[in-house]
Amino acid sequence: MARHRIFASIMAADYAHLAEEVAEAAAAGVDGFHFDIMDGNFVPNITFGADLVRALRPLTDLPFDAHLMVVDADLLIPRMVEAGVNRLSIHPEAGGHLQRSLARIRELGAQPGVALNPSTPPEAVRYVLDDIDYVLMMSVNPGFSGQKFIPASLRKAADLAELIAASGRDISIMVDGSVTPEVAVELAKQGARDFVTGSPLFSHRPLAARVQQYREALA
């Protein structure tokens, strides 16, 4: 099995020094960067979009993973991929046609994923398993950084892993939402492979020491 991967969430970085934050996180050994794209409608917050992704893309060769928390995902999908996103997840609740949107992501050259809110069951991905490379499982209600981890996420990760295993497909489970090293260990036991860390990473300096804590916990 591939090793566990750590994605640094740009939402929790210091916006006044993003270039330095990306450089430090990359040097610290993260496996990629995660972008929370919010439109103020699908979730009650507004963050950033393709322009920021495009500005940061030349700074590192590490994968860029974007989570679209927007009403019209189809509008942003080509813009995000063109800006340099390598992995892109969308919500079933966003409307439109989920399978078609996922197929479009892959057609444009990025890895498609489905994002699941805490109350969205694993069953929501059953009929699009052929169309995805990963599932982004939210362990907090999306919209804001620094929330408390929802304990039921552990059971959900196990159920999701069981569903994927039964399909025989190589689909990774990525978890986002207050994922500390201690929480990551428990999620990994349930089948999660990739972890997004925002405040639990950027609020601990130096970043290299914090990333090492994740590595040691997940070893």
Key words describing this protein structure:
eight-stranded parallel barrel; 219 residues; TIM Barrel; alpha/beta; single chain
Helix count, per DSSP? Answer: 8
CATH fold description: TIM Barrel
Q: Give me the strand/helix succession.
A: EHEHEHEHEEHEHEHH
Got a strand count?
A: 8
Number of domains: 1
Please give the CATH class.
Answer: Alpha Beta
Strand content: 15-25%
**What fraction, in percent, of the residue positions are helical?**
25-40%
Q: Could you state the CATH homologous superfamily?
A: Aldolase class I
- The CATH architecture would be Alpha-Beta Barrel
Question: What is the strand arrangement across the widest sheet?
Answer: 1-2-3-4-5-6-7-8
Secondary-structure-based class equals alpha/beta
The whole-angstrom Rg is 16 Å
**What is the CA-CA span between the terminal residues?**
13 Å
State mean pLDDT (0 to 100 scale).
Answer: 96
Low-confidence stretches: none
Question: Which SSEs are present, and which pair or pack?
Answer:
Elements: E1 5-9, H1 18-28, E2 32-38, H2 50-56, E3 64-69, H3 73-83, E4 87-90, H4 98-107, E5 111-116, E6 134-138, H5 153-167, E7 172-176, H6 181-189, E8 194-197, H7 199-202, H8 207-218
Parallel strand pairs: 1-2, 1-8, 2-3, 3-4, 4-5, 5-6, 6-7, 7-8
Helix pairs in contact: 1-8, 2-3, 6-8
